[in-house]
Specification:
Layout (H helix, E strand, L loop, with lengths): L1 H15 L3 H39 L21
Length: 79
């Protein structure tokens, strides 16, 4: 955490030296990075939820035999 504080303090000191329009650009960039991080976190959570849903849906099927299908089992064929 101490390293993070030092980095944020350094960023603050450097940004203070910039003219206001450039400070606004830096703020836009920081907000963009934060929103990207949040989107990635949300995507990871959704992926985890989807994986969990699939594993729960498939629970108990591990010991089932895999059915064998043959061409005559098909109702329609496409060529």
């Amino acid at each position: 955490m101490e390293d993070t504080m030092r980095v944020s303090e350094r960023i603050y000191e450097e940004v203070k030296k910039l003219p206001e329009p450039l400070q606004a650009e830096v703020l836009d960039f920081v907000q963009y990075v934060a929103s990207r991080m949040q989107r990635e976190s949300t995507s990871d959570n959704e992926l985890t939820a989807a994986s969990l849903s699939l594993s729960l849906a498939m629970r108990g099927m591990e010991d089932e035999e895999t059915p064998s299908y043959f061409p005559q089992d098909l109702r329609e064929t496409f060529q």
